[in-house]
Amino acid sequence: MFRRISKRATLAAGTVTLLLTVGVQAETIEIPVGAQGGDTHVEQVRGLKKDEVTARLGEPVSIQGPIGDPAISRWEYADFYVYFEWETVLHTVRKPQG
């Protein structure tokens, strides 16, 4: 019913697990509650196409990308960023104030 796993197989599995987890890193960003929000207004643009965003918000200050597959690009405005997957808005992110 149960079979024994050799020490070599256990060591190999541990090595693979270690190799897979070594390259994974994350950064935690903490923003004090009082610093969140503010007067900056970001319109709801999720799901809109690039030409619709330009019509609503004007031309961006800069454009980064596209990078990767799916192609992700970032448009920078004065107070926020707009992230696109291909031609469609995924998310808007307010720039840090300070």
TrEMBL record:
Top-rank lineage group of the source organism? Bacteria
Signal peptide range in chain numbering: 1-26
Q: Which UniProt keywords apply?
A: Signal
The protein in question is named: SmpA / OmlA family protein
Report the source organism: Microbulbifer donghaiensis
